[in-house]
Amino acid sequence: MASHWLPRHDHALLGKIQLAKQDEGVIGVQVIPVDDRRLGACMVVVPPGPKTDPAGQQRTDREGRPQWVVGVAVRDVETRRAEVLEITLTAPAVPEMEPGAWVRLEDLEAVQWSIDGRSGVSWRARGVHVSGAAAKRPAGGEK
């Protein structure tokens, strides 16, 4: 998890703890806003595609809007470390962006979750906006 992007405050105060009942048991979720001032360059590395459930059906939000997932390489301005985040977006149609496009993340959040002894972090954003042309790659064997 890229916790170095998270605010340097008490996460319990910044996040919202939500508990929900499901057939499998209780889910614990903590939503933590990411301090976007600490993010450097962001580039699409995997174009958006449908976010699917284990049965292959596209997931939707509570209002029934389709969800999409996009792979974005993000560089921390302080550590210069880069990671690829799979970010979930909600939009009526697949967002249009190509690999190599520079993007700006709107309201990025880390979602820490725990269910039935498993835990992890997922990422979601209100938007991923293209802010520059796709990076050019040399053709063939050019250096």
Outline the secondary-structure elements.
Blueprint: H1 11-14, E1 16-22, E2 25-33, E3 39-50, E4 67-76, E5 82-90, E6 102-106, E7 109-115, E8 118-124, E9 127-132
Outline of this structure?
The protein contains one helix and nine strands.
Description of the molecule:
With 143 residues, the chain is mostly beta strands. The chain has one domain: OB fold (Dihydrolipoamide Acetyltransferase, E2P) (Beta Barrel), CATH 2.40.50. 3% of the residues lie in helices and 50% in strands. It has 1 helix and 9 strands. It has one helix at residues 11-14; strands at residues 16-22, 25-33, 39-50, 67-76, 82-90, 102-106, 109-115, 118-124, 127-132. The strands form 2 sheets. It has a 7-stranded mixed beta sheet with strand order 1-2-7-8-5-4-3. A two-stranded antiparallel sheet has the order 6-9. Strand 1 and strand 2 form a beta hairpin. The longest helix is centred in the N-terminal third of the chain and has 4 residues, at 11-14. It is globular. The relative contact order is 0.22. Residues 7-24 have low confidence and may be disordered.
Q: N-to-C SSE series?
A: HEEEEEEEEE
CATH class: Mainly Beta
Largest sheet: spatial strand order: 1-2-7-8-5-4-3
CATH architecture descriptor text: Beta Barrel
From the helix content, strand content and strand pairing, which structural class follows? mainly beta
Parts with pLDDT < 50 across at least 5 consecutive residues:
7-24
**Beta-strand content bin:** over 45%
Any idea what the shape is?
A: globular
Query: Rounded to an integer, what's the Rg over CA atoms?
Result: 17 Å
Total number of distinct structural domains: 1
- Strand tally: 9
- Report how far apart the termini are: 34 Å
CATH topology: OB fold (Dihydrolipoamide Acetyltransferase, E2P)
The tally of helices reads 1
Task: Report mean pLDDT, rounded to a whole number.
Answer: 79
Estimated helix fraction: under 10%
Give a quick account of the main beta sheet: strands, pairing sense, barrel closure.
7 strands, mixed
